[in-house]
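Hi team,

Below is the intake form for Fluoride-specific ion channel from Micrococcus cohnii. Please confirm the fields before the structure is written into the shared record.

FORM ID: S-0412
PROTEIN: Fluoride-specific ion channel
ORGANISM: Micrococcus cohnii
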Amino acid sequence: MSAGMFALVVTLATVGAAVGVALRFLLDQRLGTWGVLTANTAASFLAGVVTGVTVWTSSPSPVWAPAVLTAGVAFVLALGTFSTVAADAAEHVLDGRVGKALLLWPLHLLCGMAAATLGVLLVAG
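The structure came back. Fields below:
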């Protein structure tokens, strides 16, 4: 990889991550707990799309494909926030709302798995 391509990959990864974090922050501020679920579900869907494009497309990749893929992955990783689910669950337990804490994980995992599967199927289908 040339120095110019490396610089492009690093720049796009940085921009992708910054946009993902900003969007997650806005969703969290506007929607609270539902914002985190929305961010995780959207990130899972986009991860499915990226996986589908990477694995199931047979067209030759252009020279800039690694840079765009890196930016997409950085965006998805920054948008998704399962660590916040853990913090929210811990907060619910500390506040005596164990039932709500126990419902958070299955809800996030099921929505994420369904969204990722849909993303893959959309591209692969």
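SUMMARY LINE: The chain has a mean pLDDT of 87.

Thanks, M.
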